Amino acid sequence: MFRDRREAAEHLIDRLAYLKTENPLILAIPRGAVPMGRWMADALHGELDVVLVRKVGAPGNPEYAIGAVDENGRVALEPAAEHYREDAVNREVEHQRGLIEERRRRYTPVRSAIDPGGRIVVVVDDGSATGATMAAALTALRDRRPRRLIAALGAAPPETVARLESLADEVICLETSRDFRAVGQFFADFGQVEDEEVIALLGHERD
Are 163 and 133 in contact (CB under 8 A)? Predict the structure, then answer.
C-alpha cells in the first residue's frame, strides 16, 4: 500500500528517470492523477497537461464503467454496454462529452492542449480497474503520433495491464493484484482532488 499519491509518483519517477533529458510530456488523467503528474513533470524536467477522457458509467450504477469517451468525441464501449438501453447509454455519453468540454475550458483557459506529436508522452493515472479510461486516452493519443507512448499507473489488475500493453509502447504499473476491488485500496490516503487544485497545478511552472 502507498502512503498517498505522492509516494506512488515517486516510485514512477524512479522507473522513468531515464527520461530526464527527453523533455517528456506528462499527461495526467483528471482529477486524482494531476498531483502525481505535477510531481513527475517537475522531477523529469518535462511538461504537464491533462488528457481529457471520461468514464461512461452504467445507467443507474455510474461507478461501473461500460466505456469511455475522449476529447475528440470518440466513444469506446465495453461489451457490458449491450446490457443497457441504448438511449440511456447515449445520454450518459453526451453528459460525459459535456463535462470534458467544460473541464478543458476551466483547466487551460488561456491555451489549447499541448500537442503530443513527436514527443515522448507519459499518460499517468493513480490506478485503473477496467482500463477503459486509460485505453481511451492511449487510443486518442496514438492518433496524434507521439514518438513514444507510455502508460504509468499506481495499481491495476493483471488483465487490465495486459489490455494496456497492446495500446502503449510501455506500461509501468506499480501494483498488480488479482484481488483488485478498487484503486483506493492501494492508498492509505486517497483524498479527493478538487478542480481548484487541478487548475493551480496546471498553472504552476517548475523552477
Answer: no
Which alpha helices (H) appear in the chain, and where do they start and end?
5-15, 33-43, 86-107, 132-142, 158-165, 195-203
Mean pLDDT of each 10-residue bin along the chain, 207 residues long = 96 98 97 96 97 92 89 90 95 94 90 93 95 92 96 97 97 94 94 94 68
Give the CA diameter of the chain.
51
According to DSSP, residue 22 is labeled S
Q: What per-residue confidence (pLDDT) applies to 207?
A: 38
Instruction: Write down the pLDDT at residue 205.
Output: 53
Residue 206's pLDDT is: 44
Residues 6+ apart with CB under 8 A from 188: 1, 2, 3, 4
DSSP 3-state assignment of 109? coil
DSSP state of 115: P
DSSP-derived 3-state class of residue 104: helix
What CA–CA distance (Å, rounded) separates 53 from 69? Answer: 6
Cell of 144: 496524434
Residue 173 burial by CB count (10 A; 0-12/13-18/19+): exposed, middle or buried?
buried
Mapping DSSP to helix (H, G, I), strand (E, B) and coil, where does residue 101 land?
helix
**CA separation for the pair 150, 21 (Å, rounded):** 16
